Structure formats: structure tokens, C-alpha cells
Amino acid sequence: MKELGGVNGLTRRDFLRSGLVFGVGAQALSAGYAAVPDVFARAVLAAKEAKVQNDRILVMIQLGGGNDGLQTVIPIGDGAYRDLRPQLSAAAAKAQPISKDIALHENLRGIKKLYDAGKVAIVQGVGYPKPSFSHFDSIRVWETGDPERRQQNGWLGKAIEKNYDSAGHPLVGCACGTTNVPGALRDLQATLTVIDDQKTFSFQGGQNVENVMGTLYTGTPGIYGALFDSAMATVRDTVAQLRTSAAKYTPKGGYSDKVNLVYSSKNQLAAALQLAAELIVTGTGVKIIHVTLGGFDTHYTELNRHDALMSYLDSAVSAFHDDLTAYGMADRVLVATWSEFGRRPKENASGGTDHGTASPVIVIGDPVKGGLYGETPALAKLDQLGNLSFGVDFRAVYQEILSSHLGVDGKEILGQSFDRVPFVKAPAG
Amino acid sequence: MNEPPKPAKKTQKAPLGIKRRHVLVGAGAAAGGLAVTRVLGLHHLGPELPTIALPGQATPTPKTKDWIAPLDKPEAQVAHLLRRATFGATTAEYDAAVSDGFKTTVDRLIETPAAEPPVMQAAEDASQEKPLPPVQLQAWWLDWMLRSPTPFAERMAFFWHGHFTSDFRKVNPQTPFIYWQNLTWRRMALSNLSDMLYKVTIDPGMLRYLDLGTSTGRSPNENYSRELMELFTMGVGTFTEDDVRAGAKALAGWREPVTQAMYDAAVKRAMEQGRPVPRNLQPDPGKTGVFEQQRAYVGPVTFLGDTRQWGTTSVLEKILKQDSVAPFIVTKVAREFVNQDPDLAYVKRLAETFRKTKYDVKTLMRDVFTSPEFLSPPSYRALVKSPTELMIHTTKALGLGQQPQLTRGLAVAGNGMGQALFDPPEVGGWPSNASWISSNNVLERVNFAQATLTALPTIPAFGKAYVTHLDGVVSPATAQLLNSSPDDATRWLILLASPEFQLK
């Protein structure tokens, strides 16, 4: 075992041993939720050598519920599309062609503009073998980067653990616009923060209450003790960081949260991305950001609902890109979407679609080498259940993000190597 | 570098001699340099210190292990029960239950049928003209959680709200459906799974939330069929995709009812726009889905191994014959009422009786609360309160009664902590235990305690609140802060914001 001694005399062995005396804590570890005693985690992580020297930043956008890829990147050249989707194919006429056979949804206007400028990569047919049609099961596969379902930690959390000193710097990994830790960021040994709304992210009662709470959440016994204590330490570090950053930022993009557009999205994507921009622009040391837009489980009246979701995604991402460009930081930031699955090619009686398989990943930003990647899905060759076959393993997309954009060892995080999907313009050295 | 976590060592037992009648602290207290005698000074909380003193160098070591479970004491057993079977207790409720004893209290909680909440006319009359503001509905329920004379039944209604979940966004506040669902879930909360599944399947809110109300035999919608098996009864991996498709066909034929208010609004709208009223549109008398044979599937399909003509009742009966159902429900119940990792033998034992009693909920819950596992030390503080439980317990601890402003405030605060009622984050319902703990939520919980206390015109006497609400079992840090608090307002803040109070 590799020893990482030297900080306060603690070694990794000490750390593991101490981590294990938390009784049933080990079960909590295997559930993938628990944290480690903060002081040990800090010591171990502080002892890591900073392997990464670049200033690249990643923003992952989860399209929760299963985004319909065939309504997002529309195969206008495929006659089967209209046959399978008599109602939903109305979207084809208004879509924005990017090739002879493919068009972007009409409401992805800002993303189309960025595509024309060579800043958007569309990876088609992304999925994994033996796909699950369960939201939760498939979300877990995408979050952990493991179709075998053996891993507990999230792929982004693991990237933080292996590469960055997150102890005492919880903003290295941040979930914006949500209240709970997303599975992709979850990691036993990484520190990360969650900020729903930065305007209310401070202690009522001021510094005195903050100090008292710091003491109150110290040495808490029980299986949740370390988790509570490290959450409070993270709160205090985050509050301190936000206090210094708030004064330095005014948005330079046209963010607007059209919440009424979307029937079932509680996630205000624009607000979340505006917070992400603030964290980036003000130099908080943020590396990996996760945001979610929900409402994609379009089993019924999909046409209108999906239109609204596309518009929501497009306006938020466009504002975010404008904002970063105005601040001269767009060259550092890569945005990528992910969703647990696509949807069934054949529409149902409710004017919607049921759970499906492969769907496109959209990658946006100045570091991107724009264009189409992967094969256009073949609607004439559906599998036995009437679903699309995948062409690109989602972990190949992760690998490109990790290795080429962030410049970290993708294989260490994913456990194996994949053929490159070379959508990053100039791989980080 | 990548060694798997080793198996858990046995939880350390408290060293003999450290147990005290009222104040018990974690085993690490002595190691942390904090004198036990000082902790015992909790009896003598004095006003002598002008500000809160910080322990500074007395920071206890993180090697502190487990809470010393006081569950061998009758009053602690009762308090443990009230924190889990209800939303926590007022001092009066606590005193009454302690006087009745554990066994009598279990009987009383389980055998009392759910009291009906006050009728909410604005919800009953919801239509496109007059949508129901969700915060009003949330406040209505929070108010009833706070006041209901049958808190266990109310707690179970809340459990089923997370299990058979729906959200107001998709169900839509322009209908009374989400309100009706709440009434239905409460009335069925202590019945049996068989009756419940039928009510859930034809519940108007559920017909809309999981799309069974628009599914037809000719072109079935799979959403309800899948989640009925995956989330409501059997669990993921216990059925095939063919079962999902067959189930969708077999269940098709239901539609939502049209209420008088919805009908009136539609007529008015048609007249305003100079359109004729749709010919088929009629108000329905009932508050459940309406079955239309012409939209159903006719013919045999193969579902869970049997090929036949199916109907809703036979589909549900077939599901209830699956071996996976009882352990699936029992595991979920145990994670919410006993501990996060119930062992297999325990689940099996409870599941056998649950199935034998035709899935009787009262029997299951009695078995849970009277099982040795419920009162065993590893179950002590082994669960994290959901935001709703935290808020209602806080309000009860402070003795706050019915106040419209208060419950509206709770509705908003719950949202900030990740639990807006009637609006779960996903179709799987609410998170549980460790997944409630994030930097955002811990901050919001502390701020909730502070904001609640700040809003009070008078601070109730602290008295023995640390016994009533925390069994007198606190960490060295909590003990020290309580000891050095200058006044009752500060003591309440420490108690309500403490990690101890976040647990149940």
C-alpha cells in the first residue's frame, strides 16, 4: 500500500484504520454516502501532490428523466422517423438542419449558433451494453461510470479525490441549484459542496452563531457523526469563499428562469448556471460543477413539454457562454449534457414516449472541436424491444472529458481505456 | 491504494461506569480531554457567562465512537418510539406516553384510526379558473401534522406519500387530485397492501402522474406498469421488459374523472371563446378513475409467467403473489423506522408475517416497533430526520400551536432543506438518511432553528428539554455548549441545531 505520510504524522493506514472504527460506518461506506472523519480526510488529501496544473473547468448538466434524443438531434433524413412518430415528428419541419440528415430542435437556437461557430460537438448514439430501463438503475450506471454496478463513488467525485486537494477547498467540486449531493459527485474521500441559492448561503445570526455551530459539529459520535461534522466544515469554508466572491461578480449574460415553461422542472437551470459562472469568474478554485434540469420523463404530451425543455436548456447555456465570454474565461470551460437514457423510437398513445436506450451527448464550449461524432442512429434497425442500439460507450465520452479536457488520468477513474472520441480541440498537457 | 473497505468491527460498548442517569456522553469524551464531571454539570446550567464560550482546545477527538444508547430505560424507549412513529412529541405528549409506558403507547398509536384533517375547500374547488397555490396545500398538511390527534396514522400517510409518490407539478394544481390523493393515502394508511394497491392504481392523481389515465390497449403507456413493479411492490431486477409491456396492456382503460368545478370552468371557457362545449364532457360523480372498456386491451398477454386475459384486479393479485413484494416493502419500512441497514434475517422474519397476514400494515408496524431490533443499541440515532420531521418536532418541542403564518413558513423552509411536500425530487420519492446531509441542508437546518427562535415573542423555559428531546445523551461538544449557554434562547438554539436533534 502506498503511504502518504508527512502531514501531522498521519498515514493512509492510520486513516483507513480510524475510518473503520466507526462501527456500522463501514456499511455506510459501502452505501457510498458516508464521509470520513474530516481531520483525517484533510490530512490525507493535503498530502497528495497536485498532479494537475491546468485551469480547465467542467460543467456537467444532467437532463433528468431521460431526454428524448430523437427530438433533440432529429434524424430528418430517416423516413422511419415519421412512421414511428406520427405526432412528435411535427418537430422535424421546424428543426434547424446541421447536415443533410440531421437537424437540431428548433428551440436550440443559441446552441445552433455555437455549433456553426465550431464550438459544439454532438456525440450520437451514446449508451452502454445491456441497458437498464429503470431511471434509478441507469442513473447509477451513468453516475458511477460503471455498467457492472460495482462502483459506489461517482465518476466526478472520484476525479476530485484522485486529482485535487479538496480538503478545506470544498468548491473544487460543487453542485449548484440543488439541495442534496448528486450521485456523480459523491465520493468517500472527496470534499464537495452543495449550494442551492448563494443569496441565502450564510449563517443567520452572523459570526457568533457560525462559530458556535463550528464547535457544535465537532467530534459528533455515531454513524452519521463524521458526515455531519464534515458537512458543517464545508459550510463554513463555502460561506467564507462566497463572501469574498459575491462582491466581484455581476452577470454579463442574459439569464432568465422561465420556470413556467416547464411543467415539472424544479431546477432553475439558469440560476444554477449563473451561480456556476460566479464561482468560475471570481476565482474560487472551482474545477467541477454539476447542475440538473429535470422534467425529461416525457411519457405524455411530449411535443409541448419537450419544446419548453429545449428552450430552457438553450437559453441557460447560451447566457452562461455569453457571460464567460464577456469575462474572457470561455476558453477554460467545457459544458456537457448527460441523461440516464433516451426514449423509445415509437411514440405511445399519450403523445409521449416510454423509456429507451441510446441518446446524444451535447458538448459545448470554446475548448470543443465542433461537429458530429458517432453514427446517426438507425431507425430501420431497432432491437427486439424496438430500441436503438448504442454506438459510443458513455465512458468514452467521460474519458475524453477527463483525459483531454481536465488533463487527468481517465483510466484511473474509469478502470479501463476506450477509443478516443476526439471532441476536445487541444488536449491539456 | 484501492483496497476495498474492510468489514465493520463490532461497535464498541460503553466502558462501564460512565453511564449516568441523565447525562450520557460518547465514549470519546474522556479521551477528548473534557471532564465527565463537567458534562454532568448540565443539571446546573447557570446564567453566569455573558456570551457563549467556545471550547477551543477542548475539541474532542474524532475517534469518538457511538452514542451510548439509553434504550434500556423506559422513558428513553418511549421517546425513541415517539421520534419515529410520530413527528416527535410536545412535552405533554411525552409525559403522557412515559406514564402509559412503551407497550400501551404502541397499542394506542397503532389502533387509533386516522383523524380526518379539516376540509380544504379551495383544494376541492381547484380548476383552471382557480388553481390551488401549492404552498397553501403544503401549509394545510403541515398544520395537520402538527395538530392531528392521531400522529402515527399521520406519520404513515407521510410514509406512503413518499412511497406512492406524485407531484403537484405534473398532477397540476388546476385539479383537486393531489389533495384527494392525500386524503386517500391517509384513510388507507393502516389498511393492507392489497386494498392500497387498487386505490393507488385508480387514484386520479396517480392516473395523471404515472400516465395510466391516458394509456390505451391499442397503444399502451408503460410508465405506471413499470413503476408499479419497480418502485411500489417488487423492486428493480425482479421482472422483465416483456412484463412491463404486458402489464401496460393489461392495466389500460382507465381515465381521470372530471370534477364539477373542472367541468364548469371548461364550459365557461368554451362560451367565452365562442366554441361549443365538447360533447363527451360530463362531470363524474366519483373521486376515482373511470374505467372505459373500449379503451382497454382485449386478448391474452403473458404477465409474470401467466398467459390470460387480465384486468386491473388480477394484475395486482398476481403481483402480490411474488416473493419479492414483502421483503421489498419491509426493507423500505425498516430503513425509515429502524435503521439504514436492516439485516436480512430481520427483514425475512418481518416479511414472512407481513405476507401471511395478507400484507396487513398494522401487524407489520406492530412487529417493527415491538421487535428487539427496534430497541437495540445499533438502532439508536441510526436514522436522519427528514426536513418535515425536523420541522414538526422543532415546533412541538417549542410548544407552538396552530398559526397559519407558522405553517406557511414551514412550507417555505422545507423547500430550502430539500423537502417541499407534494413535490418530491423524483418518481422514487424522498431521499433518506445520509442523503439528507449536504452542506446546503446542514446550513438550512441550522438557519431554520435560528429563524424559528428569533421569531418567537417569548422563549419557552428550557427546563429538561435535553432529556425530553435528546434523552440526555449528548456529545461532549453539545454538553459543553449547553453548559456554557447564557440563557434559554441559546440553549434552545444549541439543542435544535445540534446533530443529536437531526437524528431520530
Label this structure with key terms:
heterodimer, A: 429 residues, alpha/beta, Alkaline Phosphatase, subunit A, 3-stranded antiparallel beta sheet, globular, disordered N terminus, B: 504 residues, mainly alpha, two-stranded antiparallel ribbon, two-stranded antiparallel sheet, 25 helices, 4 strands
Write up what this structure looks like:
The complex is a heterodimer of chains A (429) and B (504). Helix content of chain A is 36%, strand content 12%. With 429 residues, chain A is of the alpha/beta class. Chain A has one domain (13-414): Alkaline Phosphatase, subunit A (3-Layer(aba) Sandwich). In chain A, the strands form two sheets. In chain A, strands 1, 5, 6, 7, 8, 9, 10, 11 and 12 form a nine-stranded mixed sheet that branches. Chain A has a three-stranded antiparallel sheet with strand order 2-4-3. In chain A, helix 12 (269-281) packs parallel to helix 13. The radius of gyration of chain A is 22 Å and the shape is globular. The model of chain A is unreliable at 1-51 (pLDDT under 50). With 504 residues, chain B is mostly helical. Chain B has a domain at 125-145 and 168-191 and 198-320. Chain B contains 25 helices and four strands. Chain B has helices spanning 36-40, 74-85, 91-100, 102-111, 121-124, 134-147, 151-163, 168-171, 177-188, 193-201, 204-209, 223-233, 241-251, 260-272, 312-320, 325-337, 344-356, 361-370, 387-397, 404-416, 439-455, 465-468, 476-483, 488-497, 499-502, and strands at 254-255, 290-291, 301-303, 306-308. In chain B, a hairpin with a 2-residue loop joins strand 3 and strand 4 (306-308). Chain B is globular. Mean pLDDT of chain B is 87; it is low at 1-64.
Biggest sheet character of chain B = 2 strands, antiparallel
Cα distance, first to last residue of chain A? 28 Å
Helical segment count of chain B: 25
What is the correct CATH architecture of chain A?
Answer: 3-Layer(aba) Sandwich
Structural class of chain B: mainly alpha
Oligomeric form of this entry?
heterodimer
At the first level of CATH, the class of chain A is Alpha Beta
User: Please, what is the average pLDDT of chain B?
Assistant: 87
Integer-rounded radius of gyration of chain A = 22 Å
Please count the beta strands of chain A (DSSP E, at least 2 residues each): 12
Order of adjacent strands in the largest pleated sheet of chain B:
1-2
**Named CATH topology of chain A:** Alkaline Phosphatase, subunit A
